[in-house]
Here is the input.
Amino acid sequence: MDLRPYFGKNVVVTATDGNIYQGFVEFGTIPGDSEENCYEIDLRGTQQFGNKLLNLMEYEIKSIKLVEEMDNSKKIKPREYDLVLLKNGREVGLIDQLDETHFWADYGTETEEDERLFWEAPPVSVDDIEKILYSPYSESEKED
Here is the structure.
């Protein structure tokens, strides 16, 4: 099963053991790079494992589907370089857009925890964002 279309996307996976996982495919491995010579995905943000990575080999996957996107008219539409408030109360700068719904975030370097998060935190999802605090784009450039 070719898992490349799911790399960097939110998915729902039904495993061969019957478990269902929903999360973000943070890493993907192709057969030539896999020790077991098969596709692999690493999910982050599943209900079962939270922020820890869950590794699944293609033979452990019964089915995989992209998570349906929410109605875009109701969704926050952040852009690179926006300052946002996350639902957990942290303010972060969005520094690199990975896909339509995920960004690398700058947590700052004021504390050791901020610096650790800068290097180790998973990408920020649009679903993690409470609101946009500041955008460097003029009103005419902002997406509606």
Notes: Residues 90 and 107 are 8 Å apart (CA to CA). Residues 112-120 form the longest helix (9 residues). The beta strands are 10-15, 20-29, 40-44, 54-57, 61-66, 83-86, 91-97, 102-106, 124-125, 129-134.
